């Protein structure tokens, strides 16, 4: 949902926050590769442990908070991503204990307050879903601050990302006029996800299994009801977006099924396969799909679609198949190289995005970018 008719924060602030998010992504990937076993410099002793927080908060949290701030045009909303970025920096600086997680939690609270504000302006299933997603993020951050195992926080961060994206998709599928049963099916799956997250705090294995069932359910729901299925036959960018979305829903189903099959794992190859089917297969496919909408809106530029966009998408899925296949088959070399290729594909995607950006003639509005995205599906 967008309310802004013009970008109200200075461009430098948007650029700074975007740079912070990209920095979080790059450091997060480096940390992930070290965790995977690449014998590279650790840079900072805390870095490997911070891989999950860097990715879920420092990168995705900052990006999502920034997108909400630009979308609403509320100046105070920028405090959310700014605090999350600061919290990430504090943790990276090696300040022990709660200061980094606390700042991050405060930032996520502000982002959630923005989302609640949107529910009040437009009470609807999609705004409520995103607000619950924000609350899940706050919950995960509190668990991180309270020094629960990161594997528990990771389930809450999963809830944050999946509900945020599902809410976005619900919004864009509004024109399909979903039937009551379809809406209730969605609510049921989302509610089960929340129940699973809560249960995981006391009974990790049972909670993870419930989360897995909910994710599989949500993926089937998205495959069935999302507008994407109808847009595959369209040409150009609409077709690319639809294919990226559907491929991501496939990975969400894989992640859900694996979470049920291996419920209770909190480290090692099966854990890696579950988390990254969701975080790379689903979340990154969504990022690839929405990049032509989000980047122009945040940066105030245009993005020219090209069939070149398919290259990172196809390579993302191929490299993830190698990694998850290696995880499940007990083949460490495939996991190692698959992970490295995942990172390379993300860099390729960033490069491909940058070279597709063009200065936009006339005034740039977030609302205009969103209207354009709705038109293209
Ligand atoms: C190039 C990409 C990535 C690599 C190489 C990578 C690598 C890893 C590794 C090796 C682990 C530990 C798994 C184990 O115990 O064996 C892990 C955990 C985790 N990853 Fe990733 N990852 C990547 C992308 C992502 C992304 C995009 C996210 C997004 C949220 C993410 C979030 C997490 C989380 C939350 C954990 C669990 C936290 C923890 O145990 O510290 N990762 N990752």
Could you please describe the fold and organization of this structure?
The chain has one domain (11-376): Cytochrome c oxidase-like, subunit I domain (Cytochrome C Oxidase, Chain A). Helices cover 77% and strands 2% of the residues. The protein is built from 14 helices and two strands; from the N terminus they run αααααααααααβααβα. The protein has a two-stranded antiparallel sheet with strand order 1-2. Helix 10 packs antiparallel against helix 11. The model has no long low-confidence stretch (mean pLDDT 92). It binds protoporphyrin IX containing FE. Protoporphyrin IX containing FE is lined by residues 29, 32-33, 35-36, 51-52, 55-56, 60, 150-151, 154, 157, 267-268, 271-272, 275-276, 279-280, 339, 342-343.
Tags for this model:
14 helices, 377 residues, binds protoporphyrin IX containing FE, globular, Cytochrome C Oxidase, Chain A, mainly alpha
Could you tell me how far the N terminus lies from the C terminus, measured between alpha carbons in angstroms?
15 Å
- By secondary-structure content and strand pairing, the structural class works out as mainly alpha
The total of beta strands comes to 2
CATH architecture: Up-down Bundle
Please give the count of helices.
Answer: 14
Mean pLDDT: 92
Give the number of domains: 1
Element pattern in H and E: HHHHHHHHHHHEHHEH
CATH topology: Cytochrome C Oxidase, Chain A
Instruction: Tell me the β content.
Output: under 5%
Give unreliable regions as ranges: none
Largest sheet: 2 strands, antiparallel
What small molecules does the structure contain? protoporphyrin IX containing FE
Order of strands side by side in the largest beta sheet?
A: 1-2
Quickly name the level 1 CATH class.
Mainly Alpha
Estimate the global geometry from the Cα principal axes: globular
Q: CATH homologous superfamily, by name? A: Cytochrome c oxidase-like, subunit I domain
How large, in whole angstroms, is the Cα Rg? Answer: 19 Å
> Considering DSSP H and I runs of 4 or more, what fraction of the residues is helical?
over 70%
């Amino acid at each position: 949902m967008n309310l802004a008719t013009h970008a109200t924060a200075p461009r430098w602030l948007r650029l700074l926050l975007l740079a912070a998010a990209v920095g979080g992504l790059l450091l997060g990937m480096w940390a992930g590769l070290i965790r995977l076993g690449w014998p590279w410099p650790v840079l900072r002793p805390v870095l490997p442990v911070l891989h999950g927080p860097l990715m879920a908060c420092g990168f995705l949290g900052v990006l999502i908070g920034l997108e909400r701030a630009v979308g609403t045009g509320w100046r105070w909303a920028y405090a959310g991503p700014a605090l999350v970025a600061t919290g990430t920096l504090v943790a990276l600086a090696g300040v022990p204990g709660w200061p980094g997680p606390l700042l991050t939690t405060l930032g996520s609270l502000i982002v959630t307050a923005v989302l609640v504000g949107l529910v009040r302006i437009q009470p609807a299933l999609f705004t409520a879903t995103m607000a619950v997603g924000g609350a899940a993020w706050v919950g995960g951050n509190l668990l991180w601050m309270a020094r629960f195992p990161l594997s528990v926080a990771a389930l809450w961060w999963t809830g944050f990302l999946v509900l945020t994206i599902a809410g976005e998709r619900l919004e864009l599928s509004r024109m399909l006029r979903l039937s009551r049963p379809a809406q209730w099916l969605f609510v049921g799956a989302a509610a089960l996800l929340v129940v699973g997250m809560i249960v995981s705090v006391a009974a990790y294995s049972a909670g993870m299994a419930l989360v897995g069932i909910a994710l599989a359910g949500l993926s089937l729901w998205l495959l069935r009801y999302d507008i994407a299925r109808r847009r595959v036959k369209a040409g150009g960018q609409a077709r690319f977006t639809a294919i990226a979305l559907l491929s991501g829903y496939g990975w969400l189903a894989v992640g859900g099924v694996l979470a049920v099959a291996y419920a209770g794992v909190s480290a090692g190859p099966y854990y890696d396969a579950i988390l990254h089917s969701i975080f790379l297969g689903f979340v990154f496919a969504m990022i690839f799909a929405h990049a032509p909408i989000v980047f122009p809106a945040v940066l105030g530029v245009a993005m020219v679609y090209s069939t070149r966009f398919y290259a990172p998408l196809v390579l993302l899925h191929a490299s993830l198949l190698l990694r998850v296949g290696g995880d499940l088959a007990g083949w460490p070399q495939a996991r190692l190289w698959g992970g490295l290729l995942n990172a390379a594909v993300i860099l390729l995607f960033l490069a491909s995005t940058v070279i597709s950006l063009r200065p936009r003639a006339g005034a740039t509005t977030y609302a205009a970018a969103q209207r354009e995205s709705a038109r293209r599906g």
